[in-house]
Write a structure and sequence with these properties.
Blueprint (H helix, E strand, L loop, with lengths): L6 E5 L6 H14 L4 E5 L13 H7 L5 E4 L4 E4 L10 H7 L7 E5 L8 E5 L15 E6 L11 E3 L3 H16 L1
Parallel strand pairs: 1-5, 1-6, 2-5, 6-7, 7-8
Antiparallel strand pairs: 3-4
Helix pairs in contact: 1-4
């Protein structure tokens, strides 16, 4: 059986810039010939198909899952029970990871898996790393006092964060 690709998350409070950072990191990782998948956790309901489209009508009629396929992309739409929160393990089990070198995760902040904390001091939120031993580094936009006992990265320097992922995190796994 093939080994699953390494997993690395980005944990932060809303408004910190997780998605913005990921959109800047992905081209840098791709330039280093990594094939990267992303799992993004949302606390909101969302629709990826729209009223009037066939996939929407089929789902409303009771089909779950619905797979929408073209020669350009594939989407699988599955209804989940709103009674319980989803877990990262459940999503990883459904994630097509074959051929990937790395899976980046945005969210699932309270679950234990390797992650980089993102911190913007202007938000006035507490740091996560003191109570989460699975945080392996912190990317922030200001000096922290006291200095954290884990690597500190510049939140506004995606190249430095990509370098940490490539030369520290992934290297430590091989």
């Amino acid at each position: 059986m093939l080994q699953p690709p390494p997993l690395l998350g980005f944990a932060a409070y809303s408004g910190t810039g997780k998605t913005t950072l990921l959109t800047r990191l992905l081209p840098l990782l791709k330039a280093n010939r990594l094939k990267v998948g992303v799992i993004k956790h949302s606390h909101h309901d969302f629709e990826i198909d729209q009223p009037g489209k066939d996939s929407y009508r089929l789902r409303l009629a009771g089909a779950t899952p619905v797979m929408l396929v073209s020669r350009f992309r594939r989407a699988i739409i599955s209804e989940l029970s709103a009674a319980t929160e989803v877990t990262l393990a459940e999503q990883l089990a459904a994630f097509p990871s074959a051929g990937l070198d790395l899976i980046l995760v945005e969210g699932f902040r309270d679950e234990r898996y390797p992650k980089i904390e993102l911190h913007r001091s202007a938000l006035g939120k507490p740091l996560l790393y003191p109570s989460d031993p699975s945080i392996i580094a912190i990317a922030c936009d200001t000096r922290l006092r006291p200095e954290p006992p884990i690597p500190k990265l510049d939140l506004n320097d995606p190249s430095a964060i990509a370098d940490f992922i490539l030369n520290t995190y992934l290297s430590s796994l091989s």
